[in-house]
Amino acid sequence: MLINLTNHASIHWCNKEKQLAINLYNSIYDIHFPIISPHASATEVYELALQYENKIQALCPLAVLIMGEFTFSFTLVALLQQRNMTC
Length: 87
Hints:
Elements: E1 2-6, H1 15-25, E2 28-32, H2 42-59, E3 63-66, H3 70-82
Parallel strand pairs: 1-2, 1-3
C-alpha cells in the first residue's frame, strides 16, 4: 500500500496518477495531514512525528507520500527512513 499523508486526498488525483500508484503499491490509503500550530515547539513537532510514525508502521505500507509543513515532514521522513521505509 501507498500511504498518502497530504492535504490532497487521492480521490482528487487524476486517473493516471491513481492507476500508477495502484500498479506500484496495490492500494492507496489516505491519512489527512495534521494541523500544526506555527507556535508549536520543536519538541511538540517531534512528538507528533513519533505518533504518526507509529500509526504508519502499524499499517505496514510499501511507501509513504508526505507533503505539508516542512519541519514535521522532514522529521517524519527521517524517522521512517530509519525504519527503511520509502518516502
